[in-house]
Amino acid sequence: MSNISNYVHAFLELFYPRLCLVCGEKLITMEKYLCLKCLLHLPRTNFHDEPENAMEQLFYGRVPIQRATAYFDFKKGSPYQKILHQLKYRGMKELGEYMGAQYALELQNSEFIGAVDLICPVPLHPKKERKRGYNQSYHLAKGLSDKLGIPIEREALIRRKFSSTQTKKGRYERWENVEDIFELHQPEAFAGKHVLLIDDVVTTGATLEACAATILQNCPAKISILTLAIA
Questions:
Q1: Closest of 122, 135, 116, 99 to residue 65, by C-alpha
Q2: I want to staple 112 with a disulfide (CB 3.0 to 4.6 A). Which of 3, 48, 76, 138 is the partner?
Q3: In the chain, what is the straight-line distance between the N-terminal and C-terminal CA atoms, in Å?
Q4: 147-179 pLDDT per residue, tens
Q5: Contact criterion met (CB below 8 Å) for 212 and 67
Q6: pLDDT at 169
Q7: Is residue 218 a contact partner of residue 65, using CB atoms and an 8 Å limit?
Q8: Chain segment 178-222, per-residue pLDDT in tens
Q9: What are the CA-CA distances from residue 189 to residues 185, 197, 222 (Å)?
């Protein structure tokens, strides 16, 4: 049966080849989503090995966090922009799990991840999640959780207000857009825990700041932050 499956797969590959999301080259058997070359040249930040990095400094004086990191640098027009686009707007939720798992391999022996008790993906409003069909931050969190063995908590923190997209807003408008939109309705889930907040991309940090502030205002916890990319 496995031989038949292999023949069918090879036949389909002739007409529907799997292509690298970044460079568009055909993927070989063991590659998934990204070819080895593009994965190797991913513009990594390595912030998890760098305390007081640029991402942590983004939150200085705004909300107390322990650590912050992003997997890679995002620049408009970069071919790696396609990863975020496919994840967020093209329904490729499994891509989030793949990228989360890839980053987990680099994090698993780091001091950054050692003290984390829970992973919490930034919640979407139910209306937006129904429209999109999934929460991309959850699938990124799942990829991390599966590899690192850290449980996910996605029920305690909720998004109680629907807000418009942050994409074309300035810094102050982004903050106004997320002010008071989150609610912690199960504070006992985070009390005394070190919580790792997960989002797909950080630009000004307004959404993550609002999440962290909501948790810290309602229970004694420690907060760290991880995103797939930093813009």
A1: 116
A2: 48
A3: 47
A4: 999 999 999 999 988 765 645 555 555 455 567
A5: no
A6: 54
A7: no
A8: 678 999 999 999 999 999 999 999 999 999 999 999 999 999 999
A9: 9, 14, 13
CA-closest candidate to residue 72, choices 60, 89, 57, 84: 84
- The answer, yes or no, to whether residue 9 has pLDDT greater than 70, is no
The CA angle 117-151-146, to the nearest 5 degrees, is 120
What is the chain's length? 231
Greater confidence (7 vs 88) lies with 88
Distance, C-alpha 202 to centroid of its chain? 9
Contact (CB, 8 A) for 62 and 205? yes
**Any residues with CB less than 8 A from the CB of 172 and at least 6 apart, and which?**
none
> Which 3-state string (H, E, C) describes the chain?
CHHHHHHHHHHHHHHCCCECCCCCCECCCCCECECHHHHHCCCECCHHHCCCCHHHHHCCCCCCCCCEEEEEECCCCCCCHHHHHHHHHCCCHHHHHHHHHHHHHHHCCCHHHHCCCEEEECCCCHHHHHHHCCCHHHHHHHHHHHHHCCCECCCCEEECCCCCCCCCCCHHHHHHHHCCCEEECCHHHCCCCEEEEEEEEECCCHHHHHHHHHHHHHCCCEEEEEEEEEC
**Calpha distance 110→153 (Å, rounded):** 22
Q: Cβ(183)–Cβ(107) under 8 Å?
A: no
The CATH fold assigned to 42-230 is: Rossmann fold (3.40.50)
Domain extents in the chain? 1-41, 42-230
